[in-house]
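CORE FACILITY INTAKE
Project code: CF-77B
Contact: R.S. (postdoc)
Sample description: multi-component assembly, two entities in total
Requested service: structural model of the whole complex
Turnaround: standard
Below are the sequence entries exactly as provided by the requester. Do not edit them.
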Amino acid sequence: MLGFALEAQDGAARAGRLETAHGPVTTPAFMPVGTAGTVKAMTPAALHDCGAQMLLANTYHLMLRPGAERVARLGGLHRFMAWQGPILTDSGGFQVMSLAALRQIDETGVAFRSHLDGSAQRLTPESSIEIQHLLDADISIVLDECIAFPASQAAAAEAMRRSQRWAERSSTAFRRRPGYGLFGIVQGGVFADLRRQSAQHLVAVGFDGYAVGGLAVGEGQAAMLAVLDATLPELPRARPRYLMGVGRPDDLVGAVGRGIDLFDCVLPTRSGRTGQAFTPEGPLNLRNARYADDPGPLDPDCRCPACRSHSRAYLHHLVKANEILGAILLTWHNLLYYQYLMRAMRAAILAGRMADFAQAFAARWRSAQLAK
Amino acid sequence: MLGFALEAQDGAARAGRLETAHGPVTTPAFMPVGTAGTVKAMTPAALHDCGAQMLLANTYHLMLRPGAERVARLGGLHRFMAWQGPILTDSGGFQVMSLAALRQIDETGVAFRSHLDGSAQRLTPESSIEIQHLLDADISIVLDECIAFPASQAAAAEAMRRSQRWAERSSTAFRRRPGYGLFGIVQGGVFADLRRQSAQHLVAVGFDGYAVGGLAVGEGQAAMLAVLDATLPELPRARPRYLMGVGRPDDLVGAVGRGIDLFDCVLPTRSGRTGQAFTPEGPLNLRNARYADDPGPLDPDCRCPACRSHSRAYLHHLVKANEILGAILLTWHNLLYYQYLMRAMRAAILAGRMADFAQAFAARWRSAQLAK
């Protein structure tokens, strides 16, 4: 029930347009992460200024605080956080599985203890869908069983089969409405066979889009891209594909080149709070004393407030002094950089030059790594 | 060398206009505190949006990090922090004196240890002026000896006399230029006689403006206002008066009514980072569970982003979750509230209604305190 039009394909890379209840999203697109109903250190106006189109919010965090029923009473997540554009929510599965000793999985779902107050909580495929419905997410995600990396093929297969059954239950529980969609999650660890089986099963059930999960957990970029090579040909061309929790700028370029349409990652926002800035010349660590007297901007071609108004020396000072303004300015810059990158890839795809773009990007990225 | 024109007087209250090297300031005015070269959680654009005209920055913090010479090399403090308007710097005295065990005073100045790295530092009347010159402060302040509260009359008198000698040395060291000014500081604790002597001495030396220091340190509002009653008649009508480090909204109303023109205080910014919001109905503590389901704005008549876009329920959530956006929104709101208050007082003075304004304000403030 989610509109998606492919506007261009260039090799495996795609440019498209997603239509949601809260407006369109041109793809490939990167979603800033608004874990607890706020993209850390950013006002909605600043997010808009960065060119962000769609945000991700975390079901796990929001169900515990402030609570999905409360958000629903207050008019839904868009109104609560004053974000008028589309929102994708995850299922809560990834965070719950990360609780390790604090959770127990069985066929019905996951029992866990809140990291906030230790209270006993439960998440099932059905309750996750209900919570995402209460939040009014434009795109909901099925609950899946995420496994730790590394995992044996047997363990990966078992979790994948449970995820299949949960995906079916999620699909049954989801209330279909125009502009709202449900994505399945391809699982299977680093095993190409399992990934293919998982994709085929999800396609048979039928979803509005397909997420690729369980990556960027330590397997490395080459293994991650190999999984995409195995998986994406199994997915329907006419539906959006979302690579969950990825990643570094070079990851995004590699994944777009293989046919991914949507991304989310905490990297630009978290890095912004720890003094790392992404630039066309590679990442810079503003804590480094070499910037203490540097009067130049982070990136002379960037139009964010950090680059327009401030020197590297000032940003260094803010980071060293743990000033909130440092987090604000570097987060803003990083999110704008990610949006620039996505728009540049989209333009390259529309112009049939994605391979050239990827090659030029990789050369610059490599030389930036070597220069450090 | 600082222009100051009195536009209206209403009882003892004054409306004026200060002319500095970085532009005019209409008075009475409140200066947000930019301790380390940033008003915590605010971009320069947000400060401008709040209507802030002049900022205060702290010599003590900036001399230690990033260092006054560095700021000078980078083009001065205005350029460093991208604030185009006027900046007032304190002398560093208040912070140094607060170091207690870490500092030693003699007639030449103060030796102290940096709170950042324990390094040995010195501040003298002459070096404080030189640092403020390097920072390019529009208004500099003399170094004085601040005493702890409570202090005996003998101790207060002794510190006041040393402050007098230091004020003379500061005045000698200060380089006079158009648009730049030096303020003396009236000291003398809560003792009216000492305050009068201090004021008379400073006036005899001759300064561009007169600060009243050593208040809001625990003496209470009535004692503070009594000091103003004793001090202000001694100061020249044609020069601006600045009440340092004050205060609560009701303090500002009381002090403006007695003839103070300038204020600074960390209260609106610090409160914004701890969940307290100032409103016409009194201060609200957003941590309070009563706001968890409150769909209304903080203040329906306020045009800040917190009030325009968000509910009290959302602000409560942000504060409870320690989200940076909570600090951003509440700081913004509080600074705008302080600027509203100053503008409302200025309008009342210009209209000859300051006494009515103060009475109505006090009644509302008292009923808000009682309602809590």
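Facility notes:
- The CA atoms of residues 70 and 76 of chain B lie 9 Å apart.
- Chain B touches chain A through 39 residues (CB under 8 Å).
Invoice: internal transfer
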